[in-house]
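Cross-posting from the modeling subforum.

Setting up a comparison between two proteins and wanted a second pair of eyes on the formatting. Protein 1 (sequence, then structure tokens):
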Amino acid sequence: MSQGGVARRRGEEPAEVVLTATNSVTVIDRVRSGDADLGFTEGPTIPKGLRSKVIGHDELVVVVRPDHPWARRRRHPVTPTELAGTPLVSREEGSGTRHALTVALANALGAATAGIPVALVLSTTSAVRAAVVAGAGPAVLSELAVSDDLASGRLARVSLVGIDLRRTLRAVWVGSRVPPAGAARDLLGHVTSHAR
């Protein structure tokens, strides 16, 4: 999905700002190739060869339908071993969310941890949320992305133990210490002034 907008400084021609939602690997590739001036990622590492600035923090949460057995497990939280052995509704390879979960499981269980078993792979967070609501299985998603679903009771947050699912949100670009003057720098300034 793309969103567009216009950025303008006093006395300058308008600059078009186009925002496209895609996975972190694609964002990094587009910034490196020059197809994008600025990108936003949520992976656990700083992409090599790119400049970056932390713009916020997030936590991944395990979510299920409210009638799922995991939703009622308060006294016995789900462990990393259980999570790693359960087929999940997941984002595609290359997504920062999936990569962050893989790294967190490897940190909790050891580097030799196999990949995440998947019940269903989807290319957007909205599609993953809808699949969980429809009963396709548990998912691990951004707390920011599911906050409304948790507040409304459409999804339930699962209690976990023994795994750190916090992550850093970054802006990335090529070149100097700050993005070049213009729309990209203005957008980064706007994002950082409103960061969580």
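Protein 2 (same layout):
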Amino acid sequence: MMGESNGRQLASKWVKTEALLTHPDIAEHIPPTMRLNKKNLLSMLNEHGMVVIKPIVGAGGHGVIKITKLSQGYSYTYYSLSRRFYSFDALVNALKRLHRGRAYLIQKGIYLATIKGRPIDYRVKYVKENNRWTYRAIVGRIAKPGLFVTNLCRGGTLVKGAEGISLSFSSDAVDSKKREMRKLTELSTKVLERKYPGIGQLGFDYGIDKEGKIWIFEVNTRPQ
């Protein structure tokens, strides 16, 4: 869909992820991702221990579920609700009731850096104006206590990107982490623009894990 000034919209997280995976320098920053089905979920949980599933079309953290393999059984966390299951089939049946037939994808779970125990991720807003891409914002979003999603509509707290990096790592890390996010943003934009001409604004959702690696969780063509 073409908007008056917003540019082309791409609702599917899957098509954007597929496009970005074609570039090796970007692919290493994307958590392993598959479409959700029973077989893929089992193999991802066996390999990674913790995964996140989310609707292929959706925003605002709606419908995002964290699933963990335990020493005995499995658990999921949906907003502030956590449930435990002793069999994989029981987990799958409960998930079916939650996602109601909508298409989902699975991503390897990332243990994000935190501030006072609350996970933080980052939104980089990049907009095309007068035929040039410019940065509108680099901000951090700290999850509401007790939640793992950081979205502001779910009670997350907004901070400047530099402040978030400084509080979750150190002030010495600010310049290098912001520089790396910008490099990934510009490279990813070139890939997406080549594949989908007409996009005019992008919102990149980045996470930095506890070891300091930057991950791209998703890219929005209608960033809030």
